[in-house]
């Protein structure tokens, strides 16, 4: 009799476990699944993703309540990004959030119909991620961290008017910085300023390139690409300050770390904008091509006072009046 009761008890527990597991699985399936491809764990990228999630929450889309996130980190490896995209397909996400140009180009190839919202993509049209900012004509829409080369160069010349040679530091074969390099080259040459291309595949390659520069640079510019945003800019700053070269940047973190100045787009702000687009896709059933890809109209001039003193430079009151933040 005891054996019979024990068997009945075990069967009951099994049924309860199965019911609970089934209910839990069913609840998870009913939530909107968002796959996040962060490309790198840089601080700016992390802040961007936090703002993206925060924006969704403002629209009532709350993690583990009616949506669920799954994050994929490739650490800037194209091979790993491809593998993660294949892995993500089996999870069957309802929406993709992708950071950076190289990361988004890879994700785009794996998800042809699922909505993809991107961010931290400087040239989405030129990189062939979308057809135009007003109408992507595909399943992508997003935000970009764009400040024109002309705007950045004008500020540079107010700070260092006798600039003759600018070293442009970038990742080799990254479409984003290739486009940016051409934009800078055109705008510098029309002002009679020479540009020197310093391109590297990884951090070790960049360190070697910097230590073997044959020309005397007035300025070293860190491009808006993933190599510089993932440790490369620290090498540029170290080399610049050791050789009395003015370092300037398009990344806020770069100025915090020692670049003299930068006209930057706040990555948190565009993360929030991307979250708004994702919310409209989810809640209003809009397609990405019905939304506009954009950047924030607000840009910030960040100045590093320690670097200013080290390089023994002076800044005009006109420039100082437009500075948004000073790093001491």
TrEMBL record:
Pfam families in UniProt: ABC_sub_bind
Protein name: ABC transporter substrate-binding protein
């Amino acid at each position: 009799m005891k054996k019979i009761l024990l068997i009945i008890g075990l069967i009951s527990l099994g049924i309860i476990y199965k019911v609970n597991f089934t209910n839990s699985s069913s609840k998870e399936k009913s939530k909107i699944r968002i796959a996040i491809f962060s490309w790198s764990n840089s601080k700016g990228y992390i802040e961007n993703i936090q703002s993206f999630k925060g924006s969704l929450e403002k629209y009532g889309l709350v993690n583990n309540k009616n949506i669920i996130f799954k994050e994929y980190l490739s650490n800037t490896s194209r091979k790993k990004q491809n593998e993660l995209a294949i892995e993500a397909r089996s999870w069957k996400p309802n929406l993709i959030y992708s950071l950076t140009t190289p990361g988004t180009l890879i994700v785009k190839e794996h998800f042809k119909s699922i909505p993809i919202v991107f961010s931290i993509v400087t040239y989405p049209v030129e990189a062939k991620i979308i057809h135009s900012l007003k109408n992507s004509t595909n399943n992508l829409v997003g935000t970009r961290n764009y400040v024109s080369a002309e705007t950045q160069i004008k500020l540079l010349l107010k700070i260092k008017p006798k600039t003759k040679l600018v070293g442009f530091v970038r990742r080799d074969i990254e479409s984003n910085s290739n486009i940016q390099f051409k934009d800078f080259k055109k705008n510098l040459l029309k002002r009679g300023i020479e540009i020197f291309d310093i391109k590297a595949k990884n951090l070790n390659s960049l360190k070697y390139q910097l230590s073997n520069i044959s020309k005397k640079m007035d300025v070293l510019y860190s491009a808006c690409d993933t190599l510089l945003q993932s440790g490369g800019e620290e090498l540029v700053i170290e080399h610049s300050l050791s050789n009395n070269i003015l370092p300037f940047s398009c990344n806020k973190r770069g100025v915090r770390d020692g670049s003299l100045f930068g006209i930057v787009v706040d990555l948190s702000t565009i993360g929030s904008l991307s979250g708004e687009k994702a919310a409209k896709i989810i809640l209003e059933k809009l397609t990405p091509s019905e939304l506009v890809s954009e950047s924030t109209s607000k840009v910030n001039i960040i100045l590093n006072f320690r670097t200013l003193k080290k390089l023994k430079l002076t800044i005009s009151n006109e420039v100082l009046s437009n500075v948004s933040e000073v790093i001491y």
